[in-house]
Every structure is written in C-alpha cells, then in structure tokens.
C-alpha cells in the first residue's frame, strides 16, 4: 500500500449557494463478533488539537463525490477503509472555531479494514465503543443525531432480516 497524506488547503473546497462551507463525515462501524452479531461498535477519534471526541469529518472538495470525501476523511483521520452507505442526513451548524455556519453531511461506513499506519496517526487517537458510549462522548450535537439515525436504520434492517428468516423457516417447514 502506498503512503497517503492528508489533503490540506481550501482551494477545492465546496460551498453551498449561501456561502456555507460543506463538510462530510462518516460514522465508521462494525459488529463486535463479526457479521452475524448484533453488537454494534462505532469508531470515534480525538480532535487534532485536543481531547474532544467525534467522528471523522472534513471538507468536501470539488473533485470528489460526497461518498468519496467521506471515505477519504475516514482513511485520513481514523485509518479505516470500508463501504460508504446511504447518507444519514444533512445538518446546518455553527463551527465553534470559525463562528460561521457550515453544512454537514454524514454517512455510515461499514469498516472492512483497519490500518496500523494512516496519515493522522500521530495527531489523533481512535477508540471503538458502543453507540451509547459514543453518544455520551461525541462533542457535536449533529453527529449525535446522525448516530441515532444509524442505530435506528441498523435495528430496522436487523428486524427485517429476522422477519425474512422467519418467513423462510415457515416456508421450508
């Protein structure tokens, strides 16, 4: 694997029609004991300049789709690769550091690989935890809302899968 470095600068940064910077983030997740488990774990990371915990996010650039940006941010900031799934939603929020409105999009990322080396390894910590723990420690309200949506979506998917298995079992009997 080639060494990847984090993108820097804002030359390609996207802004919406109201001049708000657009950012994209991911909630990296996995099931603790593999695919058949329903024990969800999510990956949070520390901020670059402090101990605050959050999900990977960053600028959405002109030369990439939102899904590509979400995948890139997860690789750069958390050192994980996986499948970006359907958007969880869009939020408007005020950046604490900039004092301006941003537009944020969040996606789930089903983690397939966790790297030992990644671009921001030396400036971030990453921690796997339950969704409930992540909701407690995450610093951004809009990311907490996205997490709630992900948990509801996965619970609904699991329920549908179990119902389908029940139907199949009845059909085969």
From TrEMBL:
Similarity comment: Belongs to the Nudix hydrolase family.
Protein name: Nudix hydrolase domain-containing protein
UniProt-listed Gene3D superfamilies: Nucleoside Triphosphate Pyrophosphohydrolase (3.90.79.10)
Keywords, in A-Z order: Hydrolase, Magnesium, Manganese, Metal-binding
Cofactor(s) needed by this chain: Mn(2+); Mg(2+)
A single GO cellular-component term on record: cytoplasm
One term of GO molecular function: metal ion binding
Domain Nudix hydrolase: 19-151
UniProt-listed PROSITE patterns: NUDIX, NUDIX_BOX
Species assigned in the record: Ficus carica
CDD domains: NUDIX_DIPP2_like_Nudt4
InterPro entries, alphabetized: DDP-like_NUDIX (IPR047198), NUDIX_hydrolase-like_dom_sf (IPR015797), NUDIX_hydrolase_CS (IPR020084), NUDIX_hydrolase_dom (IPR000086)
